[in-house]
Known about the structure:
This protein is α/β, with parallel strands linked by helices and 188 residues long. Helix content is 45%, strand content 20%. The protein has helices at 19-28, 36-42, 58-65, 96-105, 110-121, 124-132, 146-157, 161-166, 174-178, 181-185, and strands spanning 6-13, 32-35, 46-50, 53-56, 72-77, 88-93, 136-140. Helix 1 packs across helix 7 (146-157) and helix 4 packs antiparallel against helix 5. The N and C termini lie far apart (56 Å). 36% of the residues are buried. Adenosine-5'-diphosphate binds next to helix 1, helix 4 and helix 7. Magnesium ion binds at residues 19-20.
Amino acid sequence: MNPPVSEVVAITGTPGTGKTTVAKILRRRGYSVISVNELAERLDCIIGEEEGCKIVDVDELAKKIADVLPEGLVFLEGHLSHLLNPDITVVLRCNPVELKRRLEGKGWSEEKVLENVEAEIVDFILIEALERCKEVYEIDTTERSPEDVANVIEMIAKGDEEAKRNFKPGKIDWIAVIGNEIDELIRI
Ligand SMILES: Nc1ncnc2c1ncn2[C@@H]1O[C@H](COP(=O)(O)OP(=O)(O)O)[C@@H](O)[C@H]1O
Ligand SMILES: [Mg+2]
């Protein structure tokens, strides 16, 4: 029997960009939304833990995932979701100055905050997504409400051409936006 046909939309991004928040909204709107971390636990793909963060065997998870995805549109939420062969990848972005505030708000260590702020500044996840995924979009969540971010993701998932044009990757340049503030932001 053929596996059910799913259309997988990955919602990825540096921690703090708002993936879980937007996933909750999409779930409330009735969509199938799967958290990569929860799925990795369910499929026994956790291979360790570091600073309270679970380490996922991504290759193993990518192999197992096809068998458990529901039919139709499904959102996969998590900072590894773009590594699981999605049909569409949405990278959430956030101005590093605001990202730092959000991560400090989560009570994260200075080191972990800095590591993620740096990853956001150098477009780490976007580049990885562009290298691996066929269709990539990016949304700046800095001044956009979570409801609005969910609206954009919904439009992209439904194939809205205007949304696809407006959220093509490559428009965000944090180094240009934050300018000299960068020294203060990443000083150790
Ligand atoms: N669009 C947004 N605008 C402002 N704050 C947001 C937005 N999305 C999320 N947040 C806040 O940022 C923090 C991190 O959000 P979260 O959804 O946990 O991010 P992630 O799952 O990507 O790590 C939370 O405090 C959340 O309330
Ligand atoms: Mg999260």
